[in-house]
C-alpha cells in the first residue's frame, strides 16, 4: 500500500481484518503508524485450503504473495508451510495471476543443514514444506517469481490479536548485529552449522516487505524472477 504502485491490495486470512486495520490507540505507536495503510487493504476472511476462497481473493489481481507458515508437528508444518502455498500457486496460475511472491526460509538452499534434518526430528516439516513450495513456484512461474529467504523476521508483533505488542526487534536486532557485523566473531558464528545461518539471516520486517514489493515491481517491468537471501533483503 505504501508504495502507491498498486491499485488495490487484498489479504486472505482466517480472521479477516486485524484490530490495527480499523482502530488505533494514542498509546499504541506501532499500530498507529500502520493503521492508515492497513485501512486501505481489502480484508477477506477465509481458509487458504478452500479453493473457492482462493479464487475469490485472486480474481482480477496481477500479483499474489504467500506469507503462510506455522510451527507444530512435522505433518502440520508440511501442510501449512508447503501445501498451502502450493495450492495457492496452482489457483493463481488457473486464474491468470502474472507474478507470485513467496516468503520462504534462510534454510532452504542447496547443502543446507536445515534440509538434512531427519523426518523424525522437529522442524523437518517446516523446511521441507518450504522447499516443496519453492519447487512448485519455480515450475509454475519460471520468470514471474520472487522468493525471499529470511531467517527470523523481527519487528513489533501483535501476538494476541488484541493490540499487545511484543518488541521482537529487541532480540533480533542485536543477534543480527553480532552475526553479521562483528568481523571475525561473526565469521566464527556463521561457521556453526544451522545456528550460524540463522544468526546471519535475521532481518527486519520492513526490509522483507520492501524487498518483496521492489522485486515484484522489477518482474512486472520485465526482469527475470529472483531469489533473495538475507543479505539482499537487508539491502532494501
Strand-pairing-aware structural class = alpha/beta
Oligomer: single chain
Count of DSSP E strands?
10
For the residues shown, what is the average pLDDT?
A: 88
Strand order of the largest sheet: 3-4-5-10
Description:
By secondary structure, the protein is of the alpha/beta class. The protein is built from 9 helices and 10 strands. The chain has helices at residues 29-38, 51-58, 74-95, 124-140, 169-180, 184-190, 195-200, 205-220, 230-234, and strands at 10-13, 42-45, 63-66, 99-103, 145-148, 153-154, 156-158, 165-167, 203-204, 226-228. The strands form 4 sheets. Strands 3-4-5-10 form a 4-stranded parallel β-sheet, with helices on both faces. A two-stranded parallel ribbon has the order 1-2. Helix 1 links the parallel strand 1 and strand 2. Helix 2 (51-58) packs across helix 3 (74-95). The longest helix is centred in the middle third of the chain and has 22 residues, at 74-95. The chain is globular and about 50 Å long. It starts with 9 loop residues before the first strand and ends with a helix.
List keywords for this structure.
236 residues, alpha/beta, 10 strands
Amino acid at each position: 500500500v505504501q508504495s502507491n504502485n498498486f491499485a488495490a491490495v487484498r489479504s486472505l486470512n482466517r480472521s479477516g481484518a486485524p484490530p490495527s486495520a480499523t482502530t488505533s490507540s494514542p498509546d499504541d505507536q506501532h499500530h498507529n503508524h500502520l493503521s492508515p495503510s492497513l485501512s486501505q487493504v481489502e480484508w477477506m476472511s477465509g481458509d487458504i485450503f478452500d479453493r473457492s476462497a482462493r479464487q475469490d481473493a485472486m480474481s482480477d489481481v496481477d500479483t499474489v504473495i504467500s506469507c503462510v507458515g506455522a510451527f507444530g508437528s512435522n505433518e502440520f508444518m508440511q501442510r501449512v508451510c508447503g501445501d498451502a502455498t502450493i495450492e495457492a500457486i496452482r489457483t493463481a496460475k488457473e486464474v491468470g495471476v502474472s507474478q507470485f511472491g513467496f516468503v520462504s526460509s534462510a534454510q532452504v538452499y542447496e547443502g543446507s543443514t536445515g534440509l538434512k534434518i531427519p523426518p523424525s526430528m522437529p522442524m523437518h516439516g517446516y523446511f521441507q514444506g518450504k522447499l516443496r513450495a519453492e519447487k512448485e513456484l519455480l515450475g509454475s512461474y519460471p520468470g514471474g517469481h520472487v522468493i525471499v529467504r529470511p531467517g527470523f523476521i523481527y519487528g513489533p508483533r501483535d501476538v494476541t490479536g488484541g493490540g499487545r505488542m511484543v518488541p521482537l526487534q529487541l532480540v533480533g536486532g542485536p543477534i543480527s548485529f553480532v552475526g553479521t557485523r562483528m568481523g571475525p566473531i561473526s565469521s566464527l558464528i556463521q561457521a556453526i552449522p544451522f545456528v550460524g545461518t540463522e544468526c546471519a539471516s535475521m532481518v527486519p520486517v520492513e526490509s522483507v516487505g520492501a524487498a518483496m514489493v521492489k522485486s515484484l515491481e522489477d518482474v512486472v517491468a520485465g526482469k527475470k524472477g529472483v531469489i533473495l537471501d538475507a543479505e539482499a533483503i537487508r539491502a532494501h
